Amino acid sequence: MTVSRALAQLAAEGLVVTRPGAGAFRAAARTRAARAGDTSWQEVALSADGAADLVPRSVDASGVLASLAAPPPGVVEFNGGYLHPCLQPERAMSAALARAGRRPGAWGRPPTEGLPELREWFARNIGGAVTAAEVLITAGGQSALTTALRALAPPGAPVLVESPTYPGMLAIARSAGLRPVPVPVDADGVRPALLADAFRATDARVFVCQPLFQNPTGAVLAPERRGEVLRIAREAGAFVVEDDFVRRLVHEDAGPLPRPLAADDPDGVVVHVGSLTKATSPSFRVSALAARGPVLERLRAIQIVDTFFVPRPLQEAALELVGSPAWPRHLRTISAELKARRDAMTAALRLDLPELALPNIPSGGYHLWLRLPDGTDETALTAAALRAGVAITPGRPYFSAEPPAAHVRLSFAAVAGVGEIAEGVRRLRTACDEVRPAKSARLPLP
Fold this sequence. Notes:
Elements: H1 2-12, E1 16-19, E2 23-26, H2 41-47, H3 62-68, E3 76-77, H4 90-101, H5 116-126, E4 135-138, H6 141-152, E5 158-163, H7 167-175, E6 179-186, E7 189-190, H8 192-202, E8 206-209, H9 223-235, E9 239-244, E10 270-275, E11 287-290, H10 295-307, H11 312-322, H12 326-352, E12 367-371, H13 378-388, E13 390-391, E14 393-394, E15 407-411, H14 418-435
């Protein structure tokens, strides 16, 4: 296998050619590289927005890259957005993919809406009156959110977002020419009174929220607010895009979870996004969009134009995985492991960094949201942390407007174990002392 991979790499680089039945041979000498072109003209073309353009066309992906880029070797990854390989169900996924490849028609063209059995599985997991006919299979949650925002709001329109919120969603909105308008979140989720005020002030027709273990605060929308949010949106003639991204990353001590908002919505207010990616692997990009009413056809049309369909082998593999005995075992395993990691990080922070405020300890998800002491420079701390050997995520990209304070988000899912969590917090202590030497004295334990 090592030799095969080496030959494939050499062939990709144009250094060897392989001939079936004969072997591998040295490739012909390369011709002299062509003269480097002059691409400076593109600066004018890319910035010359026409009169009809409502917003600039540049896209800032820095907030997304913060959780996608792998840190240098030896750096503790507190900025990751996915499970560490040791938590991923690699054997189960490999077995599922192998079985899927042997299914009749597995390599053929799937229905554009997705395999009926997979749509039925997602509909069942959403609950309520949602049916398979109201579900579309999409290539990951990011793709589903992109489709939803493009379908629901025209360029230049306002879109209400939680504050703080997922930077990837803000990037989607801005790249689509939308104007994100923040609505503050507290320990019980979005604040209904402020949501109603925002709808009245902006005439927005879309509100994007994460009612369960919100990113980054970890808040869960309180039971008494769930109906209020749907009522406010319905009266405003607006859609609620429900990003249910970590329902399968619940911790062992969470207790019963609230149903998705879509399960309690008979009027088609909610456009629901659910995904398998967070609970499996960053490359297992299978998710679903669920909606009711005429909007479903628009969502379907945009997805077909953009991507045609999700590759059938991946859909078949998803069916094999969620239908296997390995799936519930995997969910139980990560439920226990994420709780242990959360507890380890919380304890380490209280011991080594008690000056960092931790307003909420979530019972689901994969990260903690911490407020930094007043006057702390997020950018300087992030750079100092990397020099100390730990990668963290600054809080600024999570706000669509001016943040009320400095924050950081620390992930406990992308590291190898609790030992690495303790080491990462120790390194973060070093970084905090470097950035704030005058305030590095530790406070007494609470």
